[in-house]
Each structure stands twice: as structure tokens, then as C-alpha cells.
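Known limitations

Files may contain more than one protein. Parsers should not assume a single record per file. Below, a two-record file is shown to illustrate correct handling: read the sequence, read the C-alpha cell line, then continue until end of file.
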Amino acid sequence: MSWTVLPEETAGKVADALQPTLIDLIDLHLLGKQAHWTVVGERFQSVHERLDVLVDAWRLWSDSVAERIVTLGVIPKGRAQDVGDRGAGREFPLAWLADRDAIRLVAERVEVAARKARDSRQTVADLDVISDALLQGIIEGLEEQLWMLRAHLK
């Protein structure tokens, strides 16, 4: 069932290209909360609070991507078993994280997600202007987050 004017085959290709970004954003949300709960150190408070801001953005973006996939007539894959070890946060430590380590680990995962979203955008760009614009906004946001996270590490 499709709610778009795109041909069904095109809509399916676009939805398939959006799916990895959905998985990465859900994964970032989960690992961001894990880092939020386990961060320790002198900058605990500011890192703890900043992680919540990042998590909120990832959650909103994942919802937008999932709803775009639905609009394209495809069921989004956002269950735990769908995310599994395919997201940007593979092998995130189950440990207390020094504030600098938490920032570094999250920044590494944000970079992976941004790179993968850029790859998805290359597929989508010529097929669907709406999904392309959605990915552009998400990439812009991820890269801004990456800048801010890396600035903490300098």
C-alpha cells in the first residue's frame, strides 16, 4: 500500500535506501542512552545533558525516516532484531565511560551514521526529491553533531 505518487518500483528502491539510516538512527538513540547512563568524570553533567539532546534528535530523525518509508508503502524495519548488529553502534562497551571516552565513542558512531546516510543519499537523490531532502537535513544535523563532539576532544 503506497501513499505516494512515485511508481511502486521507485518507492521500493527509495525505501530500501532509507532503511540503513533508520537502523543507524535507532542504534544511535540506544547507544546514546547507554553512554548517558554510564558516563563518569569531571564533565559528567555537561556530557550527560548533551547526550540527551543528541538522543532526542536521533529519535526524531528516526521517526521521520520511518514515516517516510511508510509513506512509500513499505513497512519500516525498526525492531530490536532488525537493528541487531547492523547499526552504527556495533560493539559499544558495556562499562563506565570516562567523559572523554564517551564523547569519542559517540562521535565515532555519529561519523559512521553520517557516512552511511551520505551513501544512501546517493541512491535516493535521483529517485525522490522528498527523501533526498530528508536525508540532506539528517546529514547536516549529524555532521553538526560530529563537529560539536569532536570540538570537546581538542
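...continuing to the second record:
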Amino acid sequence: MKKIIALVLAVTLCSAVFSGCGGDPKKVVKVYNAAEYIAEGVIEEFEKETGYKVVYSEFASNEDMYTKIKTTSYDVLVPSDYMIDKLVKEDLIQPLNYDNIPNYQYIDETFKSPYYDENDQYSVPYMWSTVGILYDGDKVTDEVDDMSIMWNEKYSGKIFMLDSVRDTMGMTLKKLGFSVNTENDSELAQAKEELLKQRPLILGYVTDEVKDKIISGEGYLGLVYSGEAGKAMEEKDSLKYAIPNNGTIYCVDAMVVPKSAENKDGAEAFINFMQRPDIAARNAQETCYGITNTQGRDQLPDEVKNNKGLYPDNDVLERSEMLQSEGNINQKYLEIWNEITASH
């Protein structure tokens, strides 16, 4: 999903592993995940229990990840739904041996056989989220129930949007009553004009900084992922999270193994460990993203699993869409996005 948030970081636990560290490469697992998307101590626990060493790197967006994997080898990737679809079609990821991932049995049926992996061959769902509006209830006096609030001149200079082409474009299309996956030139042109009109009102396009800027009071409203909203609300009581009435983008991030992986066995061991119910629960609770593991969800505190912002009712999801990457959709959106971001 997302996510899909932050500057590229790298935590190297085996020095110079990309150029050869002198040890057995089969004892190293190279993981490429979105920023702030794993609980503290989980990697160290995996290393202690399995004997593998993890080289853990973080990416800012699915698009950054896609570019990076063309030149760098990883064993585990954690892309979003639409990017997995693209990776499958381009033959960049390989089928998994689910015999090595027995904890797959705990995956909620809701997340199995998705459009991007209909036969459950390539991926194991990690977490899920929605896109919505984080706002300060002490500062925003209007009802926050649809995307039009993000164009309200009353809050000019206090609005942040996501620096994510598909999410920001998608939520704008949703505001206009269109599909988040439209390839219709007229609909895309309308979304472009809508975002150009908004430019003078916003402070900028940012990623995981949105929550920090709303917490600090620099902004009053921000388009965010539900996990980021959950973290922010834990820090400031006046903050609230709203999903637009006409629906939102519903995201699933999953673990996959690229064709270029040097340690598939280690990759599958890591994926299996992440779906151990207690580990899945720790990851979900600390990151505030939605859990895909049924037994893990049972271990979450009631105030977490009953939070409708993080776990919305089915009727909300029925009005929502997952991002897809059919045809030339990504290129079309990027061309428009470049025009929008260059206009400021």
C-alpha cells in the first residue's frame, strides 16, 4: 500500500552484502519494504529463531520500488496490489512454494484470490488499509464526509495531499464520481483540472510527513493512509479520521519473491514468520494498519479491532475500489501527475 511513505533508507545487518560480504548468501535475506511498516524487534527475533541475517531496506513509493528492483536484487518485496499485478504481467516475480509458508492457513479468505493473483500463486497478503482524511477536530468546523473539504478555501494553506500519483489522482476521480482506475481521457482531464484548481490551497504533496504536520498544527487536513491516521490519533486526541461517503481506495500490500532473488528459501521463511499470528498482531498493532491474519486479529486489543476507521464495515468497502494497472494506465496517470506537480 501504499503504501509508500518516506525517504529511502537502508538498514544493513551484513556489511557490503550487495557487493559480496564473504559469507554464505543463502544465510542472508534481503527485504525491501515500505517505510515504518514493521514492528520494532521483529527482524531481530526472526534472525535469532532462524539463523538468517536480514538486510532490510525501505522505499518511498511503489514506483520507486519498481525502478530500484531493475538494478538491485532482493529476496522479499512488499508492493501494493496494483504493483503486484504489474510485476506478474512483466514476469518479475516467481511462484511461491506454499509448503514453506504453513502460516498462510491463517490468511482471511477475504484477501485470497485477489484480481492481481487469482490463483494464489505469487503473494501472501501482509496488511491492508484505506485512504482517507486526517483532520484536527478543534480546527475544522465543517462536516468531513467527502473529498470536497480538501478544496474548501476556508482551510487554504492548511491542507496536505499525498505525494502518490495513484492515490491522489484516484481520490480526486472518486470525488468527481469516476472510477479510481479510469482510462477515459475526458475523466482524467477533469481530475487534472480539479487538482490544478486545488494547488493554491495546499501546503504541498507529502508522504508519511502528513501525520506529523497535522499533529504539529502546521496543517489541519491531510490525505493519508489509515495506518498513518491511527498513529496520529494515538498522539493527539483532537485528531479524527474520515472515509468519504462515496467510498475510497482500499489497498492490500503483500509479500512476493522477485525472479532475481538469491535466497528463495530464506524469503519464504521470512514471509512465513511474518504471518505467525503473534507476529502479525504485533506488526498490525504497532503500524496501525489492517491485519490479514484471522488468528492474529483475535489477539488484538478490542479498541483496535473494533476501530471503524482502521476496520471499516463491509458497506464502506463495497463503495471502495482497489487500484489496478491495466493497459497504459500508470503511464497516463504519471504524465498528468508530472504536469500537476510541475505547476507549483
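Parsers that stop after the first record will miss the second one. For reference, the second record is described as follows. The chain is about 35% helix and 15% strand.
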